[in-house]
Amino acid sequence: DVTFHCANEELCEQWIQVANEQLALLTNRPKSLLVYINPFGGKQCGKRIYEQKVAPMFRRASISADVIVTERANHARDHLKTEANLDKYDGVVCVGGDGMFSEVLHGLVTRIQTDNGVDQNQPDAELVPCSLRIGIIPAGELWSLYRIKKTYPRINTSRTDSHVNPSYG
């Protein structure tokens, strides 16, 4: 669980009540997430970070999560491309470094285009936006998102919202 440190128990209860009330007002917030954890990247602390820091916050916010600890390179990408039932999730979260984020992004882009009959290898193909939110919990040694622009130059990585949308311009 998440721990609040406060000498005044009544004030602490107020914090919890207000937090729960605010969460209840957010009708468009994610409630079900697919989480991929890279246990090997960075300092091999992704699983610990998720279990000790992230999972308690998700539970407190009543967010359910299906967690997959990846076992090999491209495990998340391959799972997203072919097996994941994306209809049951509001978003996908990756815990790891830039490699894990790259896997999730590649898997989602490929899956969405394939499901919509778009050949993403055609230069003039009009890509279909992904409606799923993507969350990133950094747990790698390096974090270099610039590679995304090299791989998917039509994806606008400067957007401040959490949706992956093609940029046609």
From TrEMBL:
UniProt-listed Pfam families: DAGK_cat
GO cellular-component term (any): membrane
Molecular function terms from GO: ceramide kinase activity
InterPro entries (UniProt xref): ATP-NAD_kinase_N (IPR017438), Diacylglycerol_kinase_cat_dom (IPR001206), Lipid_Phosphate_FormReg (IPR050187), NAD/diacylglycerol_kinase_sf (IPR016064)
GO biological process: ceramide metabolic process
Domain DAGKc, first and last residues per copy: 28-140
Protein name: Ceramide kinase
Organism: Cyclopterus lumpus
